[in-house]
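Changelog-adjacent note: as of this version, every example in the card shows the full chain rather than a window. The one below runs 306 residues end to end.
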Amino acid sequence: MTFRLAHLSDPHVGPLGRVRLHQLIGKRATGYANWRRGRSRSHDMTVLEALVSDLKGQGAGHVACTGDLCNIGLPSEWQTARTFLEALGPPEAVSFVPGNHDAYVRGSLEGLLAACGRYTGDDSGASGRFPYLRRRGPLALVGLSSAIPTKPFVATGRLGAPQLAAAEALLRALDTEPGRPFRVVLIHHPPQPGGAATGRELKDAAAFTAMIGRAGAELILHGHNHVMSSTAIPGPAGRAVPVVGVPSASARPDGHGATAARRASYLLFEIARAETGFAVSARRRGLDAAGAVGDLGAVDLAGDPA
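Full-length structure tokens:
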């Protein structure tokens, strides 16, 4: 049987509610100024609504959202984020990992997880802790959090040694199970060295790629760069692991550089067991040049998931 997994990211759900002066301290002040100057016009909730409507008609068995529900981490955004996730589906059908905008300042991530924690629920019953494991069909979804509060004009991420060690142990254990599952790692920041510009990168990308080199995975999904991308990093025995990123799901047709790779879209993966492992393919769906939502073609997965 074929299992369908949908992946979207960086919806930056809006609009922002009323902002009180005492909330605009530190990084939130610069973030709010940037939002007023242009970011608010880069994201279109009508586009986001159209993408979600299209996604829900594709028969996905599960949806992965790799972060940045929020804009500047305001308390008023937490319920808006939860409403968005509920529009995607119930917690058992949607997996979420946070991004840097979700951890914009200290306390933001904790507030968001209090509202949306069920979408990070581990199969053991715990929620809001990373890494988490969710089994869906032939998939084992491993959710990581690279979201940390940073200084103004910085959007870096970090996993940290404890989370990396726990993820490695989890991925190794899954790899030795009878009927080995298809391991999908969810993370917000591009996890490979050089995957994002300086000031936006995952600080321990080298440690992450080294961990994958030892433990392996079948697919790694991320967001953050607001651009369609597909590359690979080495897994055990030299086997390549695909690393795939998607644009912002709410990107306006005339924003973010207006290139085809940056148009709002999501991915639809089809995964099935094969004689030697798994067969996997992916298609991109989203805005075309005319601004309509439809099929944008197959995605070249740069790794060997078998």
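Structural remarks: The chain has a mean pLDDT of 91.
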